[in-house]
Amino acid sequence: MAAFSDQAFKTRLKDLNQTQQSIQTISLWAIHHRKHCNRVVAIWMDQLREAKDAAQKLTLLYFANDVIQNMRKKGTEYQSDFKAVMLEAFDNAATAARLTSNDKIIKSLGRLVVVWRERSIFDEAFLTKLEQGLETIPAAEAAPQKTAASLAATSATRSFTVPPVSPSVTPKTPTMDNGGESMPKRLKINSADFQAFSGKSKPEAAKTAHVPTSDDEEYEEVPFVNGETQAPKLETLLRLVQKLQSAPSANAAIRSKIAELPAVITDPAAIDRISDRQEIDRLIGVAKEGLQMVVEYNKELNQELLDRQAVASELARQLAYHRKIIDDKERLREDLANQISQRRAFRDKLAIHVDSLPDMTGTSSFGNSYSRSPKSSTNKNGSAK
């Protein structure tokens, strides 16, 4: 990989766009040069200040997000350095977005904060400061950014009493058989429990919009930034890899021929010393053949370079796609675990409520005493008993 230099990094940032490949390429380059993290963050901040387009500022923030998340398991260098300038970066991007009335940029900045909070990238106090800079978002637009946890908390505050049993089954003031104790008060079960029991509650781990990122170890964001939704095909990757098996750079025969070309044809001073016309003509013929061979080999090497770039891009797409599947499955697992926990809690509350109902088994004999016919029985002579 190319050595680090300020100018090289500035050039890369100027060419940065919101496609997966662009963000991933520069992110991996920055991670590779993590020992220069101070210069990387400083140059990144300078470029963000100089960017005139709010969308380009957002792209630079996407790049920072990608680097921060991918470095979580490798070190905290970038996290601490980016945190030191992130408040200014957010304010700069939000201000540029408001000047052009670009509400989509503001929403995207809010999504970044949501993702960082869910994955504990920064502490809550710092994330709150970032959100305060976005408080000018209209209430109607900020509403969708509420997390499922806050919605569940609001729902949980509403409770209702379990409806009483029908009077035809239980008297209004039932008493126990033993000692005439009054019934215990009916339990209150909140609406969140009933929603959990009916399967209609929104789990805390709600699906939220994500910001693009990439990671060679843990790809944790939606990778298809440019609207790509189709799953990459393994056949495409296999075909590209098979093509590299016969790469020109591994062609020992052609490399050997080029190496065997006489050195004199590349040395003007040596050619000037040749006085034999026939020798010069021979060298001219060798040079022409060598030139044609080198030109063809150069074309093949250029094509190989394109093929290798295609393989790298396809590998990134495959990695991003399968990481996204893993993330979706993990969220589903958390949702199911949350629902199971809610249902168990509701089951326990329901069991307590059932135990609090009156014991009506003792009233069966009392009811049977009135089951005889009201008519008096008579003896065989017809006289009343």
TrEMBL record:
Q: Its Gene Ontology biological processes? A: mRNA 3'-end processing
Q: Where is the signal peptide?
A: none
SMART domains named among the record's database cross-references: RPR (SM00582)
Query: Gene3D superfamilies, alphabetically?
Result: 1.25.40.90, 6.10.250.2560
Return the annotated region ranges for Disordered. 160-182, 199-219, 358-385
**GO MF terms held by the record:** RNA polymerase II complex binding
Q: Which PROSITE patterns match?
A: CID
- Pfam families for the chain: CID, CREPT
Name the SUPFAM superfamilies for this protein: ENTH/VHS domain
Q: Where is the composition biased (Polar residues)?
A: 361-385
Per the database record, which ranges form the CID domain?
Answer: 1-138
The annotated regions of Low complexity compositional bias extend over 160-175
Its name, as the record gives it, is CID domain-containing protein
- Per the UniProt record, the source organism is Ramazzottius varieornatus (Water bear)
Report the gene name: RvY_06636-1
